Amino acid sequence: MDKIEIGNSVEQAINYISTEASGFLDAITNGIDFLVIGFQDILLAVNPFVLIGLLAILTYFLMARHHGLFTKAGFKAGFGMAIFIVLGFLLLYGMQFWTEAMQTLALVISSALIALVIGIPLGIWASRNDTLESIVRPILDFMQTMPAFVYLIPAILFFSVGNVPGVVATVVFSLPPAVRLTNLGIRGVAPDVVEASKSFGATPRQLLFKVQIPLAMPTILAGVNQVIMLALSMVVIASMVGAAGLGQAVYKGILKADVGLGFEAGLGIVILAIFLDRVTQALAPKK
Amino acid sequence: MSDKIQIKDLDVIFGRRVKEAKKLVDQGLSKEEVLGKTGCTVAVNNANINIQEGEIFVVMGLSGSGKSTLLRCLNRLIEPTRGTVTLEDIDITKADSAKLRKLRREDMSMVFQHFGLLPHRTVASNVAFGLEINGYPEKERLEKAYKVIDTVGLKGYEEMMTGELSGGMQQRVGLARALANDPEIMLMDEAFSALDPLIRTNMQDELLTLQEKVKKTILFITHDLDEALKLGDRIAIMKDGMIVQTGSPEDILTKPADDYVRSFVENVDRGKIVTAGTVMFNNPERLRLKTAGPATAIRKMRAVGVTSLPVVDENNNFIGFVKDEDMVKLQNEGEKSIEGKVYKELNTVNENVAIADLLPLFLDSALNLAVVDDDNKLKGVVVHSSVIAEMLGKEQEEVKQIREDGLDNVNNEEGGNDNG
Ligand SMILES: Nc1ncnc2c1ncn2[C@@H]1O[C@H](COP(=O)(O)OP(=O)(O)OP(=O)(O)O)[C@@H](O)[C@H]1O
Ligand SMILES: [Mg+2]
Question: In sequence order, which residues have a C-beta less than 8 Å from that of residue B341 and are 6 or more positions away?
Answer without folding.
Answer: B322, B323, B326, B327, B329, B330
